[in-house]
Amino acid sequence: MGKRNLYLSNTPVDEALSLYMAALQGKIVPGSEIIPVTEALDRITKSAVYAKYCSPLYNAAAMDGIMVIASHTNGASEKKPVELQPDQDYKIVDTGDPIIPPYDAVIMAEDLIESSDGKLRVLASSSPWEHVRPIGEDIVAGEMILPSNHLIRPIDIGVLLSAGILQLEVIKKPRVAIFPTGTEIIEPTEIPKKGDIIESNSRMFENMVTVKGGAAFRFPPIADNYAKIKEKVAAAAKEYDLVIINAGSSAGTEDFTVHVLRELGAVIIHGVAIKPGKPVILALVNDKPVIGLPGYPVSAYIGFQNFVLPVLRLYLDQKASEQETGIEAVISKRIVSSLKYKEYIHVKVGSVGDKIVAAPLARGAGAAMSLVRADGFCVIGQNSEGVEAGEKVRVELYRSLEEIRNTLVIIGSHDLIIDVIADMMPNHYKNMYVSSTHVGSMGGLMALKRGEAHLAPIHLLDEKTGAYNTAYVQQMFGDQVAIIRGVGRVQGFIVKKGNPLDIHTIKDIRKSRYVNRQRGAGTRILFDFMLKQAHMDAAEINGYTNEMTTHMAVAALVQSESADAGLGIQSAAKAMGLDFVPVGLEEYDFAVPKKYLKLDRVKAFLHILKSEAFKEKLTALGGYTSDHLGEIITF
Amino acid sequence: MGKRNLYLSNTPVDEALSLYMAALQGKIVPGSEIIPVTEALDRITKSAVYAKYCSPLYNAAAMDGIMVIASHTNGASEKKPVELQPDQDYKIVDTGDPIIPPYDAVIMAEDLIESSDGKLRVLASSSPWEHVRPIGEDIVAGEMILPSNHLIRPIDIGVLLSAGILQLEVIKKPRVAIFPTGTEIIEPTEIPKKGDIIESNSRMFENMVTVKGGAAFRFPPIADNYAKIKEKVAAAAKEYDLVIINAGSSAGTEDFTVHVLRELGAVIIHGVAIKPGKPVILALVNDKPVIGLPGYPVSAYIGFQNFVLPVLRLYLDQKASEQETGIEAVISKRIVSSLKYKEYIHVKVGSVGDKIVAAPLARGAGAAMSLVRADGFCVIGQNSEGVEAGEKVRVELYRSLEEIRNTLVIIGSHDLIIDVIADMMPNHYKNMYVSSTHVGSMGGLMALKRGEAHLAPIHLLDEKTGAYNTAYVQQMFGDQVAIIRGVGRVQGFIVKKGNPLDIHTIKDIRKSRYVNRQRGAGTRILFDFMLKQAHMDAAEINGYTNEMTTHMAVAALVQSESADAGLGIQSAAKAMGLDFVPVGLEEYDFAVPKKYLKLDRVKAFLHILKSEAFKEKLTALGGYTSDHLGEIITF
Questions:
Q1: Is the ipTM of this complex over 0.90?
Q2: Which CATH number fits domain B32-55+138-171: 2.40.160.20, 3.30.460.10, 3.30.450.40, 3.90.105.10?
């Protein structure tokens, strides 16, 4: 079996972090540097900053007008104006001009009367210092302008310069070295071969470090070679403030990282009770923090948030917020969680009726798209076995609540047109968004039932009548839910280019390795219906239990030659350069509770559906009919 | 009077903006450019991005273990383990390794039994695809990864690279030219002479543009010269997307901007009903937006927010949030506002008891420090005459509500030690802050009375007993408010270096130009007490009505030779390099409602007050005694 370290520890997250923080105690000292004020945006002051100059620098005119000697205007009134002599009683000033003794007040231009001979008269007496900004009114030399530990904003830069400050002491950006490792890793610029993994985590880390105020240094991938890894890490721990090693942190045959770190320094933690993200290494080399993060993107992301961020904060002299943040949402699906782990569940969040609903996304450690799609996440504590559907959870949001309130929540069957509409929405209707979750047609109707979606895209064949959608909706909802008619969609077998197995009917599927759709999907119902009509049994189909959740995933499996055939839509076959054997036209419609038809989001959706721009996109995709687009059927 | 354009219009803000937006209609088209994904952080997608590759790229092991042919494990059980032959029944795989036919499943290392002869046995049968991540499980080639108009985050960069995307189309950053103008303007690097104004607005704009996603190009100051300004603006309107001209936008003798813009193009608006910020110019030159902003920093800032930002958003294809944001707060002081203007009031915000309290800051257009100190702002509509103290206002926050909840609100008399403590708080107690507003001692006690402050620093002389503070507090609050003893503070006359007017007693003040403190200030009460004891009258004092609100401001006026003497504290004289004639020691203490003594913020304040570090700072400042620091007097 080769050399493995099967035994990762399963230290609870908080314990792992406090052990590591204790080990780092006194070893991390925030650095400082002097930089020009003009380059100080988003930096943090190391020490308080005191004004060098006053602002204004001198007594200055606060208005456009004339500066006068106030006593010379004594007794002026509407009835008895006082005439003023230039250069004796007054001088013209613009706002900001200095007031020079013996002048001691300003009269606004609007309050002057200019006679035809150019002489000026005033109708009211002026008091000393009137309309004068005294020296230091805004900033007094010696006054504290910014405290220490202050994040510098554009306005601060303006005021610092006004106060004569050209340079200031800020906290140094921690320098973070990032090492991707792995023999199977290739740079994104290379063409991948089978077994290659495109290296992308380091680029994510690089930008996460930047966002948090550090300076990231990303190195080219290192192969799984003990000596090479050791050499690079030893050098980096001298030169950088923090070292991240990506992957090789688990206990596989080629996971050298932990051995290297044990040789070079001390491994404080190897394995944390977190999911995804268990194989984390927290170590010290040359008194510098060295963190090994797992290779799966979601694990890598969660590991970074939980362990790299606190170390960056130490360097930046910041403390994590201790406030409970986030919003309360109703979870739309049961989540089973292990007592062994603190688990991070990424969710889509929608505002439907009076509920804020969180729908769990794919939970795999490799599901990077779940992070892209996520509106936020919730945490299931290590001592919890999970939550039931309908229970309240606290969700940390990645998007603003405002955006979420303007989002049309679509849950149901997947089709490429949903992505197209999701893209068109915010471009045609500013501040309106689409969130879509793919759970199949029945799943969509169940979500409507639970009040968790605005629209459910469905293509449900009524086996009795052979008609689509209406029977299901009417039976489940009576007259409460309407149908917005969508597209006619050609369903057929997605097969390899040239159809080498010569598949034409469902009987031919017996000779293939099939890839199926998940239970509840309209395509699955159609397939089961076809089996029944052909008097065939599921057991005859090799791969019947091999379930994918989207048309594209089915097509991808055929394209990679992991399967020979799958039932799906033409656009998926077309996108993957595969052949397509049509077996029928189905109706892909949208079920919508009647009460939501008046929502702006639903109206915007309808407008897009009926638009010429959308029809053009349908034609480009191919495999759709659009005769009834946007028609509404009520019961 | 020279050439003036006295007549700015007073167009309401919304009307001005919509007239300008109408004039820009069709002239602003968001640009796009293709950039490397690795440089795409914080950019906005111009078009939707579709995956080029699947992820995983192939069927991959989801676990460390062995890949097997599932059918070869049929019938395995604890009682009847199945033995597997290497390279025939299985191959060792690490997570991520490709699954190569005929292998079709993975068994985890943990579920294997290795016999002493190196043979492997399994205790349970495996099903096809178990522990295999099928190709495209996370991302399917052709799938939409990011919609258009999406702000790119670190995680997006990771996923784009995984999906084979190396470059993408993003919205081009609008290029913004910034021209400071004015003959009196100098660069911050120059030594200012009387009449000079340090140019700082352009640096604030530069950074505001950067923060909002534009590319800023700041030019050196141009003198008030019609031909020069015309030449520069004409050239910039060809090369840049947006031109900002700072100052010269009003109607003074040297305000050329509006004339230049009328000659070069069209001036849509000159003068907006906003305060501060009225002299705004909204123009078009060469079909490009050219905006003239006023020179006062607060006006400049508010003009930028109201008029430059909407233009930047057009270029970036973004829409302003329409949601009502901000929090509700109780205003602590009456605000009188003109029906002529929409007025922006910057405020300090504190959480005191069960109230969120907003205290208005200095309202002058030149009060740049009010922006630095502000926790947020509220808007008094053009049709409102203002709000009464205690009324509710909506405050847009610059800081997080969490920070505000952790802030000790100090309102009362000013002393340098307040700044010192404000700086020490967040450094000694993470996430605890001090907000201080200077309204004099009596103003501080009134704020306590209204429940708007936690602490009131006071130095109030009881004219009957000659004792400080206790009499006032007891009379106003009975036993509800305690006193935390602060410092003994030497008060005296701040005079010019060398004391040229030979000032020693209050009688000598008659020969000086005096600078006074505002009514309610402890120093003012002391001065009035001294006058009374000397049987003198306020009318005898030249400058009695010349009121400043801080010790430092008094010292600044003496230093600039605008006044000869003022009563104040030694540290202010020392900070400004002035001489100081002591006239007595006063007690500067902190009144605190007893119920707040148990607050963490107040406890932290007390700890700092008693710390050695603080005493060292007192000694460095000079002029303080510290015999009773932190003692608590209750009644």
A1: no
A2: 3.90.105.10
Cβ partners under 8 Å of residue B598, min gap 6 = none
Q: Give every CB contact of residue B6 below 8 A, 6+ residues apart in sequence.
A: A109, A110, B251
| B226 neighbors B259 (Cβ within 8 angstroms) | yes
For B41, which of A140, A210, A555 is closest by C-beta distance?
A210
Residue type, B65: G
| Assigned superfamily of B60-133 | Molybdopterin biosynthesis moea protein, domain 3. (2.170.190.11)
For A548: left if phi > 0, alpha if psi spans -120 to 50, otherwise beta; the answer is beta
Residues in chain A: 635
Q: State which amino acid sits at residue A320.
A: A
Query: Is A553 in Cβ contact with B1 (below 8 Å)?
Result: no
- Set of chain B residues whose Cβ sits within 8 Å of the Cβ of A204: 154-155, 157-158
What CA–CA distances, in Å, run from A358 to A334, B30, B119, B421? 11, 34, 48, 44
Most A CBs within 10 A among B95, B190, B199, B317, hence the mutation to make, goes to: B95
The answer to whether the CB of B349 falls within 8 A of the CB of B397 is yes
DSSP structure class, residue B139: B
CB atoms within 10 A of CB B29: 10
- DSSP structure string for A331-383: ESS-EE--TT-EEEEEEEEEEETTEEEEEE----TT-HHHHHH-SEEEEE-TT
Number of CB pairs, chain A paired with chain B, less than 8 A apart: 362
> Closest Cα partner for A522 from A573, A584, A576?
A584
Closest partner residue to B301 (CB to CB) among A48, A155, A575 is A155
What is the residue-wise DSSP string for B59-115?
-EESSSEEEE-GGGGTT--SSS-EEE-BTTTEEEE-TTPBP-TT--EEEEGGGEEE-
Helices (H), B430-582: 440-449, 470-477, 522-533, 551-559, 570-575
| Residue B13 contacts residue B269 (beta carbons within 8 Å) | no
C-alpha span between A152 and A145 (Å, rounded)? 11
What CATH fold (topology level) applies to the domain A451-633?
A: D-Maltodextrin-Binding Protein; domain 2 (3.40.190)
Tell me if A557 and B427 make a contact (CB, 8 A cut-off): no
Per-residue pLDDT tens digits for A122-178: 988 888 778 888 888 888 888 889 988 889 999 999 999 999 999 999 999 999 999
Structure tokens at A179: 């090492």
Contact of A243 with A236, CB cutoff 8 Å: yes
Contact B95/A196, CB-based, under 8 Å? no
pLDDT in tens, B324-369: 568 999 988 888 888 889 999 999 999 999 889 998 888 888 888 8
| Spans of all domains in chain B | 13-29+173-315, 32-55+138-171, 60-133, 323-399, 438-633
DSSP assignment string, A419-435: HHHHHHHHHHSTT-EEE
Say yes or no to pLDDT of B477 above 70: yes
Say if the Cβ atoms of B58 and A144 lie within 8 Å. Answer: no
CATH fold, domain B438-633, is: D-Maltodextrin-Binding Protein; domain 2 (3.40.190)
Question: Which stretch of DSSP H or E encloses residue B605?
Answer: helix B600-610
Tell the residue number behind the tokens 């106030």, with chain if given. Answer: A70
How much is the pTM? 0.88
Q: What 8-state DSSP symbol labels residue B220? A: -
User: From the candidates A115, A562, A617, which should be mutated to test the interface with B, based on the most B CB atoms within 10 A?
Assistant: A562
Residue A205, pLDDT above cutoff 60: yes
pLDDT above 60 (res B581): yes
Whether A157 and B364 lie within 8 Å, measured CB to CB: no
Beta bridge partners of B514: B565
B472: helix, strand or coil: helix
